[in-house]
Design goal:
The complex is a heterodimer of chains A (195) and B (537).
Chain A: E1 2-10, H1 15-28, E2 32-38, E3 47-55, E4 69-74, H2 77-82, E5 87-96, H3 109-118, E6 121-125, H4 127-133, H5 140-148, H6 156-167, H7 172-194
Parallel strand pairs in A: 1-4, 4-5, 5-6
Antiparallel strand pairs in A: 1-3, 2-3
Helix pairs in contact in A: 1-6, 4-5, 5-7, 6-7
Chain B: E1 3-7, H1 8-18, E2 21-26, H2 33-41, H3 43-47, H4 58-70, E3 74-80, H5 81-97, E4 103-109, H6 123-129, E5 133-134, H7 139-156, E6 160-165, H8 166-169, E7 171-176, H9 199-222, E8 227-229, E9 237-241, H10 244-250, E10 261-264, E11 266-267, H11 271-280, E12 284-287, H12 293-299, E13 307-308, H13 323-329, H14 356-368, E14 376-377, H15 402-413, E15 418-423, H16 424-440, E16 445-450, H17 469-476, E17 483-486, H18 493-505, E18 510-514, H19 525-533
Parallel strand pairs in B: 2-3, 3-4, 4-6, 5-6, 9-10, 9-12, 12-13, 14-15, 15-16, 16-18, 17-18
Antiparallel strand pairs in B: 1-7, 5-11, 8-10
Classes of the chains: A alpha/beta (195), B alpha/beta (537).
The structure holds thiamine diphosphate (TPP).
Thiamine diphosphate binds at residues 27-29, 58, 80, 82-83, 86, 380-383, 400, 423-426, 452, 454-458, 463 of chain B.
């Protein structure tokens, strides 16, 4: 039982929080885990990616090989496409549809979505809008994690616990809102899969 | 046993703390910064009052750590690879003085230059200094090696070099902690002249260092971190160093590899293990992150051994390794790389919206327009991004501190006016001595110290320059009338242009200090307090 996933987004969008949540869940439940982060040079606004590998067996490499990732989880549509070379043919691309435009030549968003829809298995969601609806505008990253959760070989309860551990310092309200965010993300995907 | 989820860099930090560390000395630099930051916030380190404040540069850090070692305590120095160039004088000589308390120098290399000017391989420095080198292949080893490194250092009486690379340093995994050791007691070196490197003493100590080499090699031979792994297929023997060992294992299901392997994580190389491998197999493949360091040694100048690696094109000559490179070297058919859509555009790093460096550059560009392009020597920091569109404001970035000295050299050659652009932290790292050279000859240069109260590029660490820049410049001998502080804002644009223009015309050293807080630090409470104390806010 192994999941290799690539996390993608822009600096400051909370990718490393997703990674930390899954990391905590792995730590508390005796999974093996390797998570390699690439920080760009800039503090904010550059591309950020992490390779995350979770398994019940020992893991050798910190990096995922080309065309072997089970999942790409992205909090930004263009960044999700940037690492498509890692995804194997049956892998899933789960991405937020809300663009982060901090460059003058950002591509046409409809064209980006069209590219995403060319990927055999994909889930696209407007996590920012969903976050706003539950008054948790800072939790769009966790909604994306929720949407990816059905594809991660780890009990949903454990991911919830991960959220609890990561956010516990910030108080019960923050924990609860993020657990809710996780849930609506998961429900979004479940609905798609059952449709 | 307690388990922790740690970056490789943090595993080194925890290993050092648990191994009885009394002080870490460091200057920030990717991918080494997290080691010191972890020690600064770790509970046991705080309780023990382990020294962890930042140093001005890597050389001062190295020397302070040597002083702590002299006093019998265990010390660690941390830096990125190019930092070791700055600390090299102290580092090489510390192998001659030897140590009293255990001394570990942790250096993080950055192959592929994710955030560096080059991808130099620190193992050459370790060999140069003739000290043991440790190179972990995973986070648990990073922890255990650092934990034991102080004893290794004390056993041989020399510093130990711990070499990390980006992927180890910035990758997280679960580590198991060991029992916490006590710190050393304060004690003077047994020989009062050990640290006095007068030629007569140094000669003897150097011979002593040479004589220790055999024992160091024996230690590598027996080290649990080096391993000879038997394999049935003798057509190939593999030497896998550090993290490369993981990429090798990744390519075989259940990590069962048909070829004999020597896994290397401690240097000097374990000679008999390597000899056995060479004698038993037809051909050698060397997998190592960084330069072809081991490969060159095994191959030899006359290329008597059949060795494959980075030098013959089996692996790429530059850049970091990955599982795919190693697969190809092993002759595996790799799947055609997945194709990325053409619609993608890069998202290059850029200065933040609201950054003071931007306003300083806009003013500088306007002031320089009449002199033409090619006169601005810059330095390393966020402001180096001024080289990119739309600013195109600078013409050099070489090594920390080089802006002022290169501007002086250019002015000496007749390129007047010449301008230097340097950040506050870089100025106190290694700009001050260059400024002294300029003042000593009254060179006609304009030095712009773009002060944002922090070491921005590496993640906003404290800057030694905070509240001291004008006094330093005055002390060095810059005419106080030509030390000018300004607030880089849109509103002040015209005034800034006018001021810079005036200083460009001045035939001596002027220092212009655009000063505005880095916007990434606005929530930093301890900085806010310091700024209030210094009346800077
Ligand atoms: C010898 C050396 N040490 C460390 C670094 C890493 N480094 C790059 S920029 C920088 C800090 C720059 O700070 P500052 O000069 O204040 O400029 P800012 O980034 O805040 O604009 C550091 C530490 C380096 N490149 N070379």
């Amino acid at each position: 039982m192994k999941t290799d996933l690539i996390l993608a987004g822009v600096g400051g969008q909370g990718i490393l929080t997703i990674a930390a949540t899954l990391g905590m869940a792995a730590l508390n439940n005796d999974f093996y885990l390797k998570q390699s982060e690439v920080h760009g040079m800039s503090q904010r606004g550059g591309e950020v990616q992490a390779h995350l590998r979770i398994s019940d067996k020992e893991i050798a490499s910190d990096l995922i090989a080309d065309k072997t990732a089970d999942l790409i989880v992205s909090v930004e549509p263009m960044e999700g496409l940037r690492y498509l070379n890692y995804l194997h043919d049956e892998g899933w691309l789960i991405t937020n549809s809300r663009p982060y435009k901090n460059i003058p030549n950002y591509p046409d968003v409809d064209a980006l979505i069209a590219e995403i829809e060319k990927v055999k298995n994909h889930i696209v969601l407007d996590a920012d809008a969903m976050a706003k609806e539950i008054k948790a505008s800072r939790s769009s990253n966790i909604i994306v994690l929720g949407a990816a959760s059905p594809f991660i070989n780890m009990d949903y309860k454990l991911i919830e616990e991960g959220i609890r551990t990561i956010f516990s310092r910030k108080g019960e309200d923050v924990v609860n809102i993020n657990i809710k965010a996780l849930k609506i993300g998961r429900e979004f995907t479940e609905k798609k899969l059952n449709a | 046993m307690q388990k922790l989820l740690l970056l490789g860099a943090e595993a080194v930090a925890q290993g050092a703390i648990d191994g009885g560390l009394s002080g870490v000395y460091a200057y920030p630099g990717t991918p080494s910064t997290e080691i010191t930051e972890y020690i600064q916030r770790e509970k046991l380190a705080q309780e023990r009052k382990v020294h962890s404040q930042w140093s001005s540069n890597e050389k001062t850090a190295m020397e302070a750590a040597l002083g702590m070692s002299y006093s019998g305590k265990r010390a660690m120095v941390c830096m990125k690879h190019v930092g070791l160039n700055v600390a090299a004088d102290a580092f090489i000589n510390s192998a001659i003085t030897g140590v009293n308390g255990g001394l570990v120098i942790t250096v993080a290399d950055d192959p592929s230059m994710h955030s560096s000017q080059n991808e130099q391989d620190s193992r050459f420095y370790g060999k140069f200094a003739m000290v043991p080198i440790l190179e972990p292949s995973n986070q648990q080893e990073a922890y255990e090696m650092t934990y034991h490194a102080f004893e290794l250092s004390e056993k041989f009486g020399v510093p130990v070099l711990m070499r990390l690379t980006t992927r180890i340093s910035h990758s997280r995994s679960i580590i198991k902690r060991k029992e916490v050791k006590n710190e050393n007691e304060l004690s003077l070196p047994g020989d009062p002249r050990q640290f006095v490197l007068l030629p007569s003493i140094a000669k003897g100590r150097y011979r002593g260092l040479i004589n220790k080499q055999v024992a160091m090699e024996m230690d590598s031979e027996e080290s649990a971190f080096n391993e000879y792994i038997e394999g049935k297929d003798k057509s190939l023997g593999i030497i896998a160093c550090g993290i490369a060992y993981n990429y090798l294992k990744e390519n075989y299901k259940d990590s069962t590899i048909p070829y004999p392997i020597v896994k290397i994580s401690q240097y000097p190389l374990p000679r008999t293990k390597i000899e056995k491998l060479v004698n038993e197999t037809n051909e050698i493949l060397v997998l190592e992150e960084g330069y072809p360091f081991v490969e060159e040694m095994i191959k030899g100048y006359l290329e008597k051994e059949k060795v494959k690696g980075r030098l013959d094109g089996t692996l790429p000559r530059d850049g970091e390794l990955n599982p795919d490179h190693v697969a190809k070297a092993l002759g595996f058919e790799i799947q055609k790389a997945g194709k990325n859509p053409e619609i993608l555009v890069p998202r290059p790093p850029a200065m933040c919206v609201g950054c003071g460096h931007i306003d300083a550059y806009i003013a500088l560009n306007e002031a320089m327009a009449e002199y033409g392009a090619g006169r601005v020597f810059a330095d390393i920091g966020c402001y180096t991004l001024g080289a990119l569109e739309p600013y195109n404001a600078i013409n050099s970035c070489v090594d920390m501190g080089a802006s002022i000295t290169m501007a002086k050299g250019a002015a000496d050659a007749g390129l007047v006016p010449a301008v230097a652009v340097i950040g506050d932290s870089t100025f106190t790292h290694s700009g001050m001595t260059g400024l002294l050279d300029a003042v000593a000859e009254n060179a006609p240069i304009t030095v712009i110290i773009s002060d944002n109260f922090t070491t921005g590029m590496t993640g906003q660490q404290d800057s030694q320059a905070l509240g001291r820049i004008e006094d330093i410049c005055k002390g060095i001998g810059v005419d106080p009338e030509h030390i000018i502080v300004m607030n880089p804002t849109k509103k002040n644009h015209d005034l800034m242009v006018k001021t810079i223009k005036e200083e460009l015309e001045y035939q001596g050293v002027s220092v212009v200090i655009p000063r505005r807080q880095c916007i990434q630090t606005v929530r930093n409470k301890s900085l806010a307090e310091k700024l209030r104390e210094l009346n800077l806010k």
